[in-house]
Specification:
CATH architecture of the largest domain in chain A: 3-Layer(aba) Sandwich
Largest sheet of chain B: 8 strands, mixed
CATH architecture of chain B: 3-Layer(aba) Sandwich
Strand order of the largest sheet of chain B: 2-1-3-4-8-7-10-9
Number of helices of chain B: 11
Helix content of chain B: 25-40%
CATH superfamily of chain B: Thiamin diphosphate (ThDP)-binding fold, Pyr/PP domains
Oligomer: heterodimer
Bound molecules: thiamine diphosphate, iron/sulfur cluster, magnesium ion
Distance between the termini of chain B: 63 Å
Strand content of chain B: 15-25%
CATH topology of the largest domain in chain A: Pyruvate-ferredoxin Oxidoreductase, domain 3
Low-confidence stretches of chain B: none
Order of helices and strands of chain B: HEEHEHHEEEHEHEHEHEHHH
CATH topology of chain B: Rossmann fold
Largest sheet of chain A: 8 strands, mixed
Mean pLDDT of chain A: 93
Number of helices of chain A: 24
Shape of chain B: globular
Strand content of chain A: 15-25%
Radius of gyration of chain A: 27 Å
Shape of chain A: globular
Number of domains of chain B: 1
Chain lengths: 650, 322
């Protein structure tokens, strides 16, 4: 764990640590926690590193690195026995009551613990307490080492040197783990590749930290981190970026947004990559397109920062009407403003994708923290009844392929699609195998390039068809024209209040959900993990996937078998399949990151199967594999209350 | 083949009240489109919700009747997705300056190349005559139970302050003059705003057709003097000709001064025009040159077998750690 004051480079050092570990072939999973604040508040980054697959974060800290007191007060006692704390000894005299950003309840708990142990309420005291609990304490005089490095490079500016603190802290951690020094140096050079001089100075800082740690503490720490050989390429990615790249690949060419955490990073990535490389293709494959491509070697995505989320969603719907794959990204408060627009898209059968980054609600809630509290809202936002898809991804790999699918569903069934990506995914960084772009297929549904069926120049956009899906021609298509209206309308799109037409149109629109239910393979909608018969059946959705899979593995070695139903397409709900699985289950546990177990309610509504045992969490911090493991174990032993509320997290 | 006025009419039932000023605006729009000989399949009329917003159903081009107050962002999305389309927005004064006020102002900052026509009847027609944002303080049209206690927005001044690059006013019963304004507004490169004085005989018994024709406003000879006058007949020139800072400033000031004239002596015509301001489309192309050469709607995104055309290998390469 790396902690520090927000704005002081915690992110950079954690990224650097993670990249250096990843460059050594290790798998990395990083979780970022921060306040809704720009500078001054505490933030920390937890990085989990392993040779094998990692899918979640854990609560215990093996190693804590910092150059600031608040991190020590907050996290020193989370470090486990035999773990390590690397810190700057200048901090020793800093007192707990001098840190105004620590909440009073946290402060009083710490004060009580320290006074019980007869220790002073300062950094020295709390580190002594950690030491008594078996933690190794490693003071590193960063500033002295930095000055030496600076002297060698003729750099005396204190602020320039301070900027290398991050590098030093990371290097000291790796040195303690006896990790290959050259891998770390290469990583730092890569980080600063545009500034060769800075890169060399940082590489020297790495060397100096290694020398210091070797000389002072060589061999004192028993953990080792060794580079691994890896087959094939590997990525280190963040959730927001994955969504953005998948959108470009999927052909999204209009993205609108109004700034909001944790969604905006995605739009900003798109904005800075709005020129899109296109693969040339041969005339043989598509004569007309080949001609276009020959002229236009590149594509382009228009990214528009709108005045509010009402404009964001309505602009995107406008893009959809013009035949362009369009989307908007937001989180709870913004999504609330989009409700009326969604209804319009439903009513007019316009494809549009809303990426909903869920964060702690209600109202402004916990703006930078995690929660899965918007499922019910995503399912019902908007007045009246209209079809929509609601999908939720469980990890970054799913995020990639689901993002592409969200556009396919929306065009094929001509409906709005809400893709929920929770904050825990948006802000996690992890190593992944290379995405397989060859697996990606674009399906634009019944999309006309020319209208040939117009009568008197008028095109029946909402033509009666057996499936309920009518051929769609974007605004501007030659050969005819038609209308759209939020009022109930006839086949041409003119206002109609005729009761017979109303029945027909309602059946047509809502029937598309049944069609989708019949057509979309279960493999795209539900993941099922574990043995067919198990002691416990977990049902969940979204980012809890990682913690559940990890906990399942640990429980297996305890002799407790668990299987897991992960719902990815929540509307249309895979009722029949889920009902079948649940009816075979011995003990069903609903696991969710919200107060009322929203998916459990949906399952009951759709399948009539009640789920009595719940594990929920709503303190804004993602579930860890450990607490879930403990919870499932308690449930298995029959010792758990019906609604088990998890509380870990800082 | 030249487009005839009748080619732009539809069979949709028009349920506006007899004598409604919306008819004049509808005629003027159809006449303008016919005269310009537009391709109806390449033209989109976008509206909000209100009496006036039913207009697209009566015009035989693509028509998008949207949500109350949201015509402008819908139209923005349409135009940015396909900048080759001719986009005209129509809506009520409540639609544009009440519920849609945020879009009215912020779209001015963008300067998307389209024309926005507001049917300004000073009431909320479709909801039975409540005060709209352009109704003056203390006014009491017959539909209001008591005089209005809100002040009026000055739409022209608001448009100029928001950055619209073409600002004009028309009158719905001066159809030919209005038609000419619509043509100019469509031809204008950038975001054009046209405020149209529109009598609502059903709910607004103050700004009636007779009122604008001069009823109760007698000249020296005792004849009714029309309450509107044409700017171009006074030698007024609202056009920025050479983009000097001082010139732009002067034209803006002059237009704002003109925008205060309302009531007995109300100007109609072009108050302000500046084609030197880059359009939003040009600004997007500044960020991504391919936006101009291959705007979103003209881009192929997949091969016939469904494989995507976008190549994201470079992006992935940047994120590779091994
Ligand atoms: C969100 C929302 N709020 C309220 C309404 C009800 N409503 C319909 S039209 C209208 C006002 C129309 O006035 P204006 O925009 O001036 O158009 P006019 O009818 O005068 O042409 C209102 C308030 C609505 N359709 N949607
Ligand atoms: S209520 Fe007024 S604005 Fe609406 S149609 Fe009737 S006259 Fe026209
Ligand atoms: Mg009105």
């Amino acid at each position: 764990m790396i902690g520090g004051v927000q704005g002081s480079g915690v992110d950079t050092s954690a990224q650097f640590f993670a990249k250096a570990a990843a460059a050594g072939g290790l798998q990395v999973f990083g979780k970022r926690e921060y306040y809704s604040n720009i500078k001054g508040e505490h933030s920390y980054f937890q990085v989990r590193v392993s040779k094998g697959t990692i899918r979640s974060h854990v609560d215990t800290v093996d190693m804590l690195a910092t150059f600031e007191e608040e991190t020590i007060f907050r996290h020193a006692l989370e470090v486990r026995k035999e773990g390590a704390i690397i810190y700057d000894p200048d901090l020793d005299p800093k007192r707990l009551d001098q840190v105004p950003t620590i909440e009073s309840n946290v402060r009083s708990v710490l004060n009580a613990e320290l006074s019980k142990a007869g220790l002073s309420a300062d950094v020295k005291g709390i580190l002594e307490l950690a030491r008594r609990r078996g933690v190794h304490i490693y003071p590193v005089p960063y500033n002295e080492i930095l000055k030496e490095v600076g002297a060698k490079h003729g750099e005396t500016s204190l602020s320039t040197l301070q900027r290398m603190l991050n590098t030093m802290a990371v290097a000291a951690s790796f040195a303690l783990l006896s990790y290959d020094e050259n891998v770390v140096k290469d990583a730092v050079r890569k980080q600063f590749k545009s500034k060769p001089k800075v890169a060399e100075m940082n590489a020297d800082a790495v060397g100096a930290a290694y020398d210091y740690m070797e000389e002072k503490y060589g061999g004192s720490f028993s953990f080792r981190l060794t580079p691994e050989k890896v087959e094939g390429p590997r990525l280190f990615v963040r959730g927001n970026t994955v969504v953005a790249m998948a959108k470009e690949l999927a052909g999204c060419r209009l993205q609108t947004y109004y700034p909001i955490t944790p969604a905006s990073d995605e739009s900003e990535f798109l904005e800075s990559h709005s020129e899109i490389e296109l693969d040339g293709h041969t005339a043989h494959e598509n004569p007309q397109a080949a001609e276009n491509i020959a002229l236009k070697a590149k594509g382009s995505i228009a990214v528009v920062q709108s005045e509010d989320e009402i404009a964001a969603v309505t602009m995107a719907i406008g893009g959809g009407l013009a035949g362009v794959r369009s989307s908007t990204s937001t989180s709870g408060p913004g999504f609330s403003l989009m409700a009326e627009g969604l209804g319009y898209a439903g009513m007019n059968e316009v494809p549009v994708v809303v990426t909903l980054y869920s964060r702690g609600g209600p109202s402004t809630g916990l703006p930078t923290r995690h929660e899965q509290g918007d499922l019910r809202f995503a399912l019902y936002a908007g007045h009246g009844e209209f079809p929509r898809f609601v999908m939720a991804s469980g990890d970054l790999e799913e995020v990639f392929y689901d993002t592409v699918r969200s556009f396919n569903y929306s065009e094929k069934y001509q409906t709005p699609v809400i893709h929920i990506v929770d904050k825990a995914l948006a802000n996690s960084d992890c190593t992944l195998g290379m995405f397989d772009v060859n697996r990606v297929k674009i399906d634009r549904g019944d999309f006309l390039k020319e209208i040939t069926t117009a009568v008197n120049g008028e095109f029946k956009r909402f033509l009666h068809t057996p499936t309920g899906v009518s051929p769609r021609a974007p605004l501007g298509t030659k050969g005819g024209i038609n209308w759209y209206t939020g009022d109930e309308h006839d086949e041409l799109g003119h206002i109609s209040e005729d009761p017979v037409n109303r029945d027909y149109m309602m059946d047509k629109r809502m029937g598309k959900l049944d069609l989708a239910d019949r057509e979309i393979p279960i493999a795209e909608r539900v993941n099922f993990f574990g043995p067919e018969n198990a002691d416990i059946t977990v049902i969940s959705w979204g980012s809890t996937k990682g913690a559940i899979l990890d906990a399942m593995e640990w429980l297996k070695s305890d002799g407790i078998s668990v299987n897991f139903i992960q719902i990815r397409l929540i509307n249309p709900f895979p009722t029949e399949y889920v009902a079948k699985l649940l009816s075979k289950a011995r003990k069903i546990v609903g696991v969710e990151m919200n107060f009322s177990a929203q998916l459990v309610g949906v399952v009951r509504e759709k399948t009539c199967i009640p789920i009595e045992q719940l594990v929920v969490k709503y303190n804004g911090r993602p579930m860890s594999a450990e607490e879930l493991y403990d919870a499932l174990k308690m449930i298995h032993e029959g010792k758990a209350p019906k609604k088990l509320v998890l509380k870990h997290g800082a | 083949m030249a487009l005839k006025l009748s080619d732009l009419k539809t069979s949709a039932h028009n349920d506006w009240c007899p004598g409604c000023g919306d008819f004049g605006i509808l005629n003027a729009v159809q006449m303008a489109l016919a005269e310009m000989n537009v391709d109806p399949t390449n033209t989109v009329v976008v509206s909000g919700v209100g009496c006036s917003s039913k207009a697209p159903h009566f015009i035989k081009t693509y028509g998008v009747h949207t949500l109350h107050g949201r015509a402008v962002p819908f139209a923005t999305g349409i135009k940015l997705a396909n900048p080759n389309l001719e986009v005209v927005v129509e809506g009520g004064d409540g639609d544009g300056m009440g519920i849609g006020a945020g879009h009215f102002v912020n779209s001015g900052r963008r300067n998307v190349d389209m024309l926005y026509i507001i049917h300004d009847n000073e009431v909320y027609g479709l909801t039975k005559g409540q005060a709209s944002p352009t109704l003056g303080l203390g006014m009491k049209p017959k539909s209001l139970p008591s005089p209005n206690i809100n002040q009026a927005i000055n739409p022209l001044m608001l448009a100029i302050a928001s950055g619209y690059t073409w600002v004009a006013r028309g009158y719905s019963y001066d159809v030919r003059h209005l038609k000419d304004l619509i043509i100019k507004g469509i031809h204008h490169k950038g975001y054009a705003f046209l405020d149209v004085l529109q009598p609502c005989p059903t709910y607004n018994d103050i700004q009636t057709k007779e009122y604008w024709a001069g009823e109760g406003n007698l000249d020296d000879a005792g004849r009714p003097k029309p309450r509107t006058y044409k700017l171009e007949e006074t030698g007024y020139d609202g056009v920025v000709h050479n983009n000097a800072e001082a010139e732009v400033e002067q034209k803006i000031q002059q237009a704002i001064l003109k925008s205060f004239e309302f009531g007995d002596h109300t100007p109609i015509g072009v108050l302000y025009q500046n084609e030197f301001v880059p359009t939003y489309e040009e600004r997007l192309a500044g960020r991504s040159p391919s936006y101009k050469t291959s705007p979103p709607a003209s881009q192929e995104i997949a091969r016939p077998d469904g494989t995507p055309l976008a190549n994201i290998n470079k992006l992935l390469e940047d994120l590779r750690v091994f």
